[in-house]
Write a structure and sequence with these properties.
The chain has 187 residues and is of the alpha/beta class. It has a single domain, classed as Rossmann fold (3-Layer(aba) Sandwich), CATH 3.40.50. It contains seven helices and five strands; from the N terminus they run E-H-E-H-E-H-E-H-E-H-H-H. The protein has a five-stranded parallel β-sheet with strand order 3-2-1-4-5, with helices on both faces. The radius of gyration is 18 Å and the shape is globular. Bound molecules: adenosine-5'-triphosphate and magnesium ion (MG). Adenosine-5'-triphosphate binds next to helix 1 and helix 5.
Length: 187
Amino acid sequence: MFSPSLVYMRRKEVSALLIGRFQPFHNGHLEVIKTISGQCDRMIIGIGSAQLSHTFENPFTAGERHLMISRAFHDEGLDNFFLVPIVDIHRYAIWVAHVASLVPPFQDVYTNNPLTRRLFEEAGYEVRSAPIFNREVYSGTEIRRRIVNRQEWQSLVPRGVAETIIEVNGDQRLIDITKDHSPEVTI
Ligand code: ATP
Ligand code: MG
């Protein structure tokens, strides 16, 4: 006979959310995620501005970014994560509800962005600061700048990310996009 006392109760687990555009995912992102993953049971990585691709600031599709991150995590032996694409809605007042409607339940949020902090705190989440790693070079802007200037960029990203960018011809795409729009590199 059914007995409520025998119902299996899962241990309370802590999930942490980190949102980025990951254009592309780089070694700084990987380091911060490795640090955070030791402080929670599960990481939820929101792939922000998921609807954007093929622009200077957002060259890669959400699917390409999903593949880059999956490969990087696989190579690191990280398996306690969910990757969730999140499209922009351009309405700050309901953005947290939008995010929460798309991702598994979470308790903690890691961010250094003051607006993101405010929005999640107002919604009652525990917001923590994320550690920063070598920001001068571990930066999406710097990596995109190097790609369009045909400088070395592969050492700034995990191997699975470089493989994905090359596989989808993403480096050439970025160079072409830049040529199409302006003779100067302004990113
Ligand atoms: P872009 O220059 O295109 O804005 P980015 O390097 O800032 O790229 P994002 O996708 O905007 O990357 O960042 C996602 C999150 O990762 C942000 O919260 C950001 O603070 C964090 N982050 C970015 N670079 C680093 C780094 N070097 N160390 C730790 N966290 C980082
Ligand atoms: Mg950024």
